[in-house]
Design a protein that fits this description.
The protein is mainly α and 115 residues long. The chain has three helices and two strands. The protein has a single domain, classed as NAD(P)-binding Rossmann-like Domain (Rossmann fold, 3-Layer(aba) Sandwich). Helices cover 52% and strands 7% of the residues. The longest helix has 29 residues.
Length: 115
């Protein structure tokens, strides 16, 4: 088991991907499932920018950093899968969900390019 917090710094999360490989004797990770996240509900004008930043960090930067941590191994072995569990909010934004929808839109954009 490799416990960690998605709120860790992006560089630390990239390193966690390498640690995951080390758990299996250096073998590349076969499947990374990005399924963690947080949410926020409030009107844009009432949402502190710190909330926007935290939701963006946990829901977007953390999955990107973890993917980057395992991607080199997957490419070297010519196999592997990056699974990203998201939300309909990544396609259709709803009222009072500015931070969450923004992070999910970014997540979709990044991983669609990686596909």
């Amino acid at each position: 088991m490799l416990p960690f917090d998605l709120a860790e710094a992006p560089a630390a999360l990239v390193h966690r991907g390498g640690e995951a490989s080390a758990l299996w004797g250096g073998a590349a990770v076969d499947v990374l499932v990005n399924n963690g996240g947080i949410s926020s509900r409030s009107p844009a004008e009432d949402t502190a920018v710190e909330v926007d930043a935290k939701v963006m960090h946990v829901d977007y930067l953390a999955p990107v950093a973890l993917a980057k941590g395992v991607l080199h191994g997957m490419l070297a072995q010519h196999s592997g899968s990056l699974v990203v569990v998201s939300s309909v909010q990544g396609r259709l934004a709803l009222p009072f969900r500015t931070s969450y929808a923004g992070a999910k839109h970014a997540l979709h954009g990044f991983f669609e390019v990686c596909a």
